[in-house]
Write a structure and sequence with these properties.
The structure is a single chain. This protein is mainly α. The protein is 54% helix and 5% strand. It contains eleven helices and three strands; from the N terminus they run H-H-H-H-H-H-H-H-H-E-E-E-H-H. It has a three-stranded mixed β-sheet. A hairpin with a 4-residue loop joins strand 1 (153-156) and strand 2 (161-163).
Length: 203
Amino acid sequence: MQMAAAERSELADFLTTLTDDQWNAQSLCSRWRVRDVVTHMISYEEHSTRDLLRRFRTARFRFGDLNDVARAEYDHLEPAQLIKFLRDHPTPQGSTARLNGRVGLVDAMIHQQDIRRPLGLPREIPVERLRCALPFAVTAPPLRGFWHARGVRLVATDLGWSRGRGPEADGTAEAILMILAGRPTVAEELTGPGAAILRQRLG
C-alpha cells in the first residue's frame, strides 16, 4: 500500500510537467489519450462492488466496455482536477485497494509507462516496486499476463526474475511488465527466440 501511494504521488508530480499537447497525445492504450488514461485510473476509486455491478449493467455485461463506462463518469474533469484527485487520493481506495494495494500499485505503474513511453520521457522505476508488480501481473485477471506470455520464458535481465517455460524472451523488468500487460510495441525491445513469438502474438 505504501508503494502504491508513492507511485501515485510521483505520477501526480510528473503530470504537472505536461503541456496541453502532451495531455492530448496518444498513449500506449488503444483509443486513449494521456488524459483518458489518467481519467481511467481515478475512475475506480471510492467505488464499491455495488458500483461495479451497476457499471457492468450499463456496459451491457461486456467486460471490454466496462472501462469506458467508468471513465465516462469522470470525463468532464480537466487536467488540473485530475492531478488534484490523485493528490487527494494517494492511498488506494475501493477496487484499487484490493490485495493490500497491489491492484493500485500495478495499475499506476503500468499506466504511468503508458503515458511516458509515447512521450519519450523514461524514468527509473524502484526495484522493490518491480519485484512486487511482476508476479502479480502474471496472475491478475484483468491483465491476463499468464495468457499473453504463455509458452514463453520471460527473463528480466536487470532484476534476476524469470517466469514460464519455453523459448526465452529477455528484456528489462519494465519491458517485461508491459508485455504482461499486453502492450505490443514493447515486444520489439525483447531479445531471444521467445521475443518473436510475443511480437507475433501481440501484434
